[in-house]
Design brief:
The protein has 368 residues and is an alpha+beta fold. It has four helices and 21 strands. The protein has four domains: 42 residues, no CATH class; 81 residues, Beta Barrel (conserved putative lor/sdh protein from methanococcus maripaludis s2 fold), CATH 2.40.420; 89 residues, Elongation Factor Tu (Ef-tu), domain 3; 112 residues, no CATH class.
């Protein structure tokens, strides 16, 4: 069976001079010749076809985006740590024996409630001695007060007697303070934890007695990258979740660290949750913070971004021609990217047909 098409003649007729080797003229190669020549025929037809849809000959068509300044809200995800409103581990200021425990583990206590009582027997005895000496000093003080106007004693004797009483009063006040330190009280209202000592134990300033946590509020500490340092402010709302709890909690930014951590290049932010039911200090929190808006830059579609030797770029369309403009990018979302430098408001950016666009090529806008 012979091939019925003179392919060399057809190609020369259509100005597509593609030589066909003689080895392909055999009847068995007819199907192979058709498969090899078909793509070239399609290319020839496309080359001979004229412009369509109003696009000038030699011009590419691409959808474009007009750069505009508009509010943009972004949600940042980070991790944080839960902390109590106030937290302290109680210890004794004195090295003494623990005589009495006045608190039950895991209970709520009021501010200034007595929790532990240390042995103060020797201190009380010393206080009694000081008070006895003060009585004698008071008697001497009254006596010299009547003798000095009559010139019965010298001014020096009067001053010595008066000073002795003043020194004893100071010594008594010091002893009273020491006795008060044997009473360990709650510095604020809260819940106590597990007791670490028992009655009769000898405690010192290095011996932990019990922990006290104020859980009326829960603080949430979380870091943010330094690029967002200017986007977060006091009073900003955020949400967070904790492991094992399906509830979404709300918080408010209360404190922003005034310096960037040089080790992590991050900014520490502390928020406050006023409804901490079920939250415990030390827990792990997944925080979602929504920024109010970008302070600088423009948002363009992500598909407009073109990798370039310098990093990133976009094709600007000006006067019907394309120009590859290097840009500096910021944050990204699923479908948008922030351009910090390189474009201005009103610029026209190509978003499609980027693989065919080259600098200086004519480009016609098609669609948004």
């Amino acid at each position: 069976m012979e091939c019925m098409i003179d392919w060399n003649h057809y190609l020369r007729k259509n100005d597509l001079a593609i030589p066909i080797p003689p080895s392909m003229i055999s009847p068995n190669a007819c199907m192979i010749r058709r498969l090899l020549v078909l793509p070239w025929l399609v290319a020839g037809v496309c080359a001979q076809s004229g412009p369509k849809n109003g696009t000038p000959a030699g011009s590419l068509s691409a959808e474009v985006h007009i750069v505009k300044s508009r509010p943009f809200a972004q949600t940042l995800s980070t991790v944080g740590t839960l902390r109590a409103n106030e937290s302290v581990t109680l210890v004794s200021e004195l090295s003494r024996r623990l005589m009495k425990i006045h608190v039950q583990e895991g209970t709520e206590v009021k501010a200034d409630a007595l929790l532990f009582k240390l042995d103060d027997s020797d201190l009380v005895a010393q206080l009694g001695e000081i008070e006895a000496r003060m009585k004698l000093a008071n008697i001497n003080k009254k006596r010299v007060d009547t003798l000095l106007p009559r010139k019965a004693i010298s001014q020096q004797e009067y001053d010595v007697s008066t000073s002795a009483l003043v020194l004893l009063e100071a010594e008594r006040n010091t002893q009273v303070v020491q006795i008060l330190k044997t009473e360990i009280r709650a510095p604020f209202a809260g819940r106590v934890g597990v007791r670490q000592v028992s009655e009769g134990a000898f405690v010192s300033p290095t011996t932990p007695l019990i922990t006290l946590q104020d859980l009326s509020l829960i603080k949430v500490d979380f870091p943010l990258p330094e690029r967002y340092a200017g986007e977060v402010k006091n009073g900003q709302q955020f949400t967070f979740t904790v492991a094992g709890n399906g509830q979404v909690f709300e918080g408010t930014v209360a404190v922003i660290e005034p310096a960037i951590d040089v080790a992590t290049r991050s900014l520490l932010v502390r928020g406050v949750c006023s409804a901490p039911q079920g939250l415990l200090p030390g827990g792990f929190a997944e925080v979602a913070l929504t920024l109010d808006g970008l302070a600088h830059g423009f948002m363009v579609p992500s598909q407009a971004l073109v990798p370039s030797p310098r990093g990133h770029g976009v094709y600007l369309i000006a006067g019907g021609k394309a120009k590859l403009q290097p840009v500096e990018i910021g944050i990204r979302t699923d479908d948008q990217v922030q351009i910090l430098r390189g474009v201005n408001e009103g610029d026209v950016v190509a978003t499609t047909n980027l693989l065919r666009i080259r600098p200086g090529v004519d480009v016609t806008a098609a669609g948004p």
